[in-house]
Specification:
It is a single chain. The chain is globular. The chain is mostly helical. It contains 24 helices and no strands.
């Protein structure tokens, strides 16, 4: 028996509903801020605590592993305690993490504090998109749920700006960079106390139709009693007239849910197989391979961030007009074109790019050595390590610049091994190699901007919306946790594996692999992904064959 259609009045976007959706989406702002704010503090932390490379990596990545845990487990509190309570607790986790990180006295307490914030990030990718999806009218659902992604990108930009503003506040600037997040975290927690609970959770999970009907009236103030009764009945229909907390749950891992499960898994899988995390996290390293290393930091923090924000806004404007499937097609085509150009450019300029990368590595190694020797407070073991790294970088540059395929002059490295003189000579070699590559470095740079734009319009705008839509009400939290967890597991793996893979394979081959994966994504979208634009959640279940 078909479930009754939602009354037309449910399609209106009231002020209360909009405010609730915006509040929930601010969890994405804290997500973006928390993820990136560490970039301004990680080098200072390594220096003041004298961290080994392993401990430094552990401290820096601790939030990411917390995110994996939070995403995989986030469906449990979201279903058991409700969407509103879970969103409020996320703000508290961010607040505790920010204050503790700023006051940490050793690397282990610091890593634990960052891990707690990461758990908040992971849970937010489950609870926030899910809540917005459940309260949003079908015709506005894409834009409202997509605000979560917009706030992630905005949080990233604000974190970079905050770090820049706090750079000169003193020796403990890194503590202020991390601790400042407590302010938006506290504000978010207080705002979440004012939003209503999800009516779908109240009706389908808690089994309280009266409470759900009351919330429907709160967010649809123009609805009369008969309309509210019909809306509550329509939401409850697919789990029966007597839905309770104990009988709404059928097994998640079932043939019935196979299509939503595969959609959630593959959209998360392909999101990371595009290489987006590799590009965002390692943009300076990638651009350093082309001789553009000096501009890498600013390009990453400003250029990529602004591009991401602008095209995310465009994606949100289009998502309820063109639809999710159409944006995935557009994004896939953009991915293939940009990644193909980047790969081809790396292959065409392999030799000069290789010399440029070696020259920049030597320049940085000798600059670090010169700084350490000038400071005069470097211990014997640490100084020996810097000297060893510098000598290895010098040798690599000498060999690559003297290779038979390189058309430029061999690097003119001074014989006396003076650190500043070698650094200057390496810089000159980098400029020569970059010049021999012609416009190659610029083409890679433009390709990266195009790649970011394709991601923002396509996968970036769609992923959280699509995962939150395709599961039935009683399995939405578990489904969101599954899709989000898949995303974060692959994100962690890509981030972990990219540096050794870059050392083992040519950059052109790596980007060709990402390009090939996006060609597979395009085939998947064209053959298997349904359009969910404007379809009420209960009707979408029938479209996907769940009912």
């Amino acid at each position: 028996m078909a479930s009754p259609a939602l009354p037309r009045l449910a399609m209106k976007l009231s002020g209360k509903l909009l405010a609730s959706a915006v509040t929930a989406s601010l969890g994405g702002f804290l997500f973006g801020f928390d993820t990136v704010v560490i970039s301004g503090a990680e080098q200072k932390i390594q220096s003041i605590w004298g961290l080994s490379d392993w401990l430094h990596g552990m401290a820096t990545s601790s939030a990411l592993w917390g995110t994996v845990l939070g995403a995989l487990a986030g469906g449990v509190p979201t279903d058991r305690f409700g969407r509103k309570a879970t969103l409020t607790s996320i703000g508290m986790l961010y607040f505790v993490s920010a204050v503790w990180s700023g006051l940490a006295t050793d690397v282990y307490t610091f890593a634990l504090a960052r891990f707690i914030g990461g758990v908040g990030v992971g849970i937010s990718t489950v609870a926030a998109p899910l809540y917005i999806t459940e309260i949003a009218p079908a015709e506005f659902r894409g834009r409202l749920t997509g605000m979560f992604q917009f706030n992630i990108v905005l949080g990233i930009l604000i974190a970079f700006l905050s770090n820049a503003m706090l750079e000169n506040v003193g020796e403990n600037n890194w503590r202020w960079m991390l601790g400042i997040e407590a302010i938006p975290a506290l504000a978010y927690t207080l705002l979440c106390l004012r939003i209503p609970e999800s009516p779908r959770w109240l009706i389908n999970i808690r089994g309280d139709r009266d409470a759900g009907r009351a919330v429907l009236g709160e967010v649809n103030p123009e609805a009369d009693a008969q309309t509210l009764d019909a809306m509550a009945a329509s939401i409850a229909h697919h789990v029966g007239e007597d839905a309770t907390h104990h009988n709404v749950h059928t097994p998640f891992w079932s043939r019935r849910l196979m299509r939503p499960i595969m959609l959630a898994f593959l959209v998360a899988f392909f999101n990371q197989m595009s290489g987006i995390n590799a590009v965002l996290y390692y943009a300076p390293r990638i651009l350093g391979m082309t001789g553009l290393g000096e501009q890498a930091a600013q390009i990453r923090s400003v250029g990529i961030g602004v591009t991401n924000l602008v095209f995310t806004m465009l994606g949100l404007w289009l998502i309820d007009r063109l639809g999710r499937r159409t944006l995935l097609v557009i994004g896939s085509v953009g991915y293939i074109a940009s990644l193909g150009v980047i790969s081809a450019t790396f292959y065409a300029n392999a030799t000069p790019f290789g010399v440029a990368a070696d020259a920049l590595a030597a320049q940085e190694a000798y600059k670090s050595l010169a700084t350490a020797e000038s400071a005069g407070d470097v211990g014997g073991e640490k100084l020996a390590k810097l000297q060893e790294d510098a000598a290895a970088a010098r040798k690599a540059l000498a060999l690559s610049s003297a290779g038979p395929e390189y058309q430029g002059e061999p690097a003119q490295l001074p014989a006396d091994d003076d650190p500043r003189a070698v650094a200057d000579a390496a810089g000159a070699a980098a400029r020569q190699a970059s010049s021999l590559a012609g416009s190659g470095g610029l083409i890679v740079l433009i390709g990266i901007f195009a790649f970011i734009a394709a991601h923002a319009v396509g996968q970036g705008a769609v992923i959280w919306v699509l995962i939150s839509e395709v599961f039935p009400n009683e399995h939405r939290a578990s489904g969101q946790a599954f899709g989000s967890g898949t995303h974060w597991v692959f994100a962690a793996l890509i981030t972990l594996l990219f540096p050794p893979v870059v050392r083992a394979f040519p950059a052109g081959a790596i980007f060709a692999f990402f390009c090939g994966m996006m060609a597979l994504q395009l085939v998947w979208v064209l053959t298997m992904v349904p359009e969910t634009k404007g379809v009420p959640l209960e009707e979408l279940q029938r479209k996907l064959g769940v009912e």
